[in-house]
Amino acid sequence: MTPTPVGMRCPECAKQRTKVHTSRSLAGTAEPLVTYAIIAICAIAFLAGGQFGVSESSTSTWLYRNGVLFGPLVHDGELWRLVTGGFLHSGLLHIGFNMLLLYWLGTEIERRLGSFRFGLVYLTALLGGSLGALVQTTATPTVGASGAVFGLMGYALVEMRRQGVNPLQSQIGFLLIFNVVLSLRPGANISFGGHLGGLLFGALAAVVLHEAARRRGPAWLGPALLVGLSAIAVVGAILMAGQTGITDSGNVTR
User: What residue ranges are annotated as transmembrane (predicted)?
Assistant: First the structure.
């Protein structure tokens, strides 16, 4: 027998080394290519608009007119706006804050999920945010990745809770509370409905992926459930877009 830090072991066992996992190794090794691609698309779209105001940019650009989320136009069949609105931003502060949060949350979550599943989670949250924005109002145009970013927060909150971590004692919990308070301040042109919709669908995405894994279903089950959630968000958004409201294209919520 050979003495070791964990007690007496036979010579063969003493030569074995147990691999130690750190938080970094458990986070996965996949490169967050989807996160980088989303940030790049948002940056290119912002630069292509040619409007670089700090707090708010012009709403007269071609990209804005053809990509903004606007209920009456969605009702007329321009369904791509449910997605493209999430890649447009109003002002440097708007895009800067969203991209910072996207980088921080997206890189970690994508490394855990892999690029394909992360892309589906992000799309689900984005469409959920579009639904929430239209529930709040169909009369005001909406832009920004905030709904999808809130969806990543919702995903992270569910995962942390599942692992026994109190989200309110984490940086994510602080960011969520801070953004909710910011969204509710008087006079803020912020789509609280979009934030809440993204948060809800991001959390649901975490639940369905966990349930699919827990039940040991086929590999396609989790992605299929995410596609189902996305379809529900699209159908709900189409129904809400048909609601009448006073057209006010002069303002924009973010």
Answer: 33-54, 79-104, 116-135, 190-209, 221-241
